[in-house]
Amino acid sequence: MTDTIQARLTALGIELPQAATPVANYVPYMITGDLVYISGQVTVWDGKMHYTGKVGSDLSVEDGQQAARTCALNLLAQLKAACGGNLDRVESAVRLTGYVNCLSDFTDHAVVMNGASDLMVDIMGEKGKHTRAAVGCSSLPLDSAVEVDGIFKLA
Amino acid sequence: MTDTIQARLTALGIELPQAATPVANYVPYMITGDLVYISGQVTVWDGKMHYTGKVGSDLSVEDGQQAARTCALNLLAQLKAACGGNLDRVESAVRLTGYVNCLSDFTDHAVVMNGASDLMVDIMGEKGKHTRAAVGCSSLPLDSAVEVDGIFKLA
Amino acid sequence: MTDTIQARLTALGIELPQAATPVANYVPYMITGDLVYISGQVTVWDGKMHYTGKVGSDLSVEDGQQAARTCALNLLAQLKAACGGNLDRVESAVRLTGYVNCLSDFTDHAVVMNGASDLMVDIMGEKGKHTRAAVGCSSLPLDSAVEVDGIFKLA
Fold first, then answer.
1. Looking at chain A, which residue has its C-alpha nearest residue C31?
2. How many domains does chain C have?
């Protein structure tokens, strides 16, 4: 039983951030039945915003992928909290919706969102595969370059 | 049993609008298992659009919050209809997605969306807490300042 | 038992496209419990993009409706694959989210999205009715005029 999600995180040298607590009347995650709904995550890290601005103009597509990866790490931090610290209680990812902050002529939303999708599979293997939508937004909260929300299934 | 949702509505002096019926091939709500999916609600009130235009330019952030609150009241009207008139059949809010009509330099989407989140908790207490995403849209149907869709859980 | 979904497709002369396989770390559909989540579908047809650009400026609203219909046909192709080829295993549509690629002064998102909603009901009858949200995006992947994702319920 060494091939756990925690073991993969360690092998990849990835430390999840602290799961942030919203300072408003909503919650970061909610379990209903065997599904975990997770609120939209932006590019905050250690309490500061990283990767702000428009992907494709202020930021390169590669930076956009790192922004999407940061959102995905924040999703996993919330998911871990929802699982009481044990990510191996997750059966699979189900849905990610990725919002890319960009100008009206941007077309590489899917490439940007791969930064989140690849992280999920790097860490969770086949369990990390998910359905997704990727769309463009003319603006996002706190000027985040990307926002991603998610639904996961518990075992 | 005085602390019902209907009692809170009365105490707060809030009268829910009539649940509007779509005039197209979709439905305002659908129950599947113990979840109620509710279609995206805009800032219509008594059959007329209120709070149209871009939040942060045509409208202040405070007006944007009122717009989000209006969408939330319309969500609750649909939820009440889904519950056969008895909101106390609701176990909890699960997910709100808030779309804010704004320009590309807007960053206060979360503040705007608090207008919807606060209403949920004002009316439903702890049951009103939910996961959410808030994003920016360059335009919305009928120039609505905000649109919010939702998922709720029945007891 | 002639009034099956496949019979309607035949009667309407509609041939579903091949269900496309994503070339990234996500999947086109996922079944969890009795729900089928389907990834966001764009206006690809036979491997080529149709209906690209902004609805209301590059494209007419009528073309936008055809774009939404194309996305809906792609959703049904994925749904059919999820059902092992038998669409009559579907109990109902549950949720469609429609993203319309348009400029900031566009207001006819609902009219555009009717292209997808009408198709669902044409093909699935009452089972095709769904909740939905329709919003405006300043850009979409591959410059698709519309993107639609969906959730369906199996019998």
1. A94
2. 1
Name residue, tokens 């008594």: B46
* Distance (Å, whole) CA A100 – CA A117: 14
Residue with tokens 């649909």: B78
pLDDT digits (tens, 9 = 90+) for C141-150: 999 999 999 9
Structural domain boundaries enclosing A138: 5-17+25-154
**ipTM for this prediction:** 0.96
| A122 CB within 8 Å of a chain B CB | no
Given an 8 Å threshold on Cβ–Cβ distance, is C114 in contact with B141?
no
Probe site for chain A from C35, C95, C106, C139 (most A CB atoms < 10 A): C139
Q: Which of B33, B130, B134 sits opposite A141 (nearest CB)?
A: B134
Angstrom distance (rounded) from CA B75 to CA A26: 16
Distances in Å between the alpha carbon of A119 and those of A115, B24, B144? 6, 40, 36
Q: pTM of the predicted model, to two decimals? A: 0.97
Across the interface, whether the CB atoms of C29 and A104 are under 8 A apart is answered: no
For residue C62, being part of any structural domain is answered with yes
Cα(C136)–Cα(A137) distance, rounded to whole angstroms?
Answer: 9
